[in-house]
Specification:
The chain is mainly alpha-helical and about 160 residues long. The protein has one domain. It contains five helices and no strands. It starts with a helix and ends with a helix. About 25% of the residues are buried.
Length: about 160
């Protein structure tokens, strides 16, 4: 059987993609946290909570988009890149919501006299900053990671079964 046909008939592409993107999220979270620490930025969210949030969000959306990325009928790099980039955009929206929610839980004194409108305003401002500061690089790197998953890792896994 051709490896392209094997890749489209994987029994667990969602699990493979979820684990793959969760591991990449851990690495990215640690690198970003280290860079921000070295720049002297105050840590708003504890590292353990940031790691847990990134693992959950990346794993969930890796599983959600995993079949589209890993089992595309034509192993086009652009197809995998576009699905990976779309996954990064959607993931960032939900990650920032979780980030603001955890920030509200950890530092309630900063949100003591806020309304729902103010909470949503801070979410939208944080989301805009995240897209402009990290989103562009995140989209590109996640697209490249999706291409690697589809073109190299899936073929390595399917050939390793034989």
């Amino acid at each position: 059987m051709d490896t392209r046909e094997q890749a489209t008939s994987l029994s667990n592409p969602r699990t493979i993609a979820a684990v793959y993107f969760a591991i990449l999220a851990v690495v990215a979270t640690l690198v970003i946290d280290l860079i921000l620490y070295e720049l002297g930025v105050v840590q708003i969210l504890p590292l353990a909570q940031g790691l847990l949030l990134s693992i959950l969000v990346a794993g969930f959306f890796g599983a959600l988009f995993g079949k589209k990325i890993a089992c595309s009928i034509s192993p086009s790099h652009w197809h995998s890149f576009i699905w990976g980039a779309l996954m990064a955009i959607v993931t960032l929206v939900f990650y920032m919501f979780g980030f603001i929610l955890l920030m509200y839980i950890n530092q309630p004194e900063k949100f003591s006299d806020t309304s729902v409108l103010h909470f949503m305003e801070s979410y939208l401002i944080s989301l805009a900053y995240a897209f402009f500061l990290a989103g562009i690089w995140l989209v590109i790197l996640t697209g490249i990671a999706a291409v690697y998953l589809r073109s190299k890792l899936i073929h390595y896994i399917t050939e390793g079964d034989q």
